[in-house]
Amino acid sequence: xxxxxxxxxxxxxxxxxxxxxxxxxxxxxxxxxxxxxxxxxxxxxxxxxxxxxxxxxxxxxxxxxxxxxxxxxxxxxxxxxxxxxxxxxxxxxxxxxxxxxxxxxxxxxxxxxxxxxxxx
Length: 120
Description:
Elements: E1 2-7, E2 10-13, E3 18-26, E4 28-39, E5 46-52, E6 57-59, E7 67-71, E8 77-82, E9 91-101, E10 106-110, E11 114-119
Parallel strand pairs: 2-11
Antiparallel strand pairs: 1-3, 3-8, 4-5, 4-9, 5-6, 7-8, 9-10, 9-11
């Protein structure tokens, strides 16, 4: 089983910045895809950004140019740098990782979620 632990959410004024982190632990053989999603009250969960094992990043149109997804050298921790935050970025942010365990079983794990609140 692969566990994801998130940190870094909080309250920030519009125009400010936050950095989210998500660290994976467990019997990991390979992580093929890593990403950040968010869910605002009354809305469906949506993809914010993801990054493949090859390093290709993809962003939702609403965050392009403001958010940056990255990972550390071990490729088991991802970050989401959020700049120029807007009130509409307020949501619970979840990290997600997919891959294979050391038992060569597929996994699709989610973090516990971290609240990001942007005051206008």
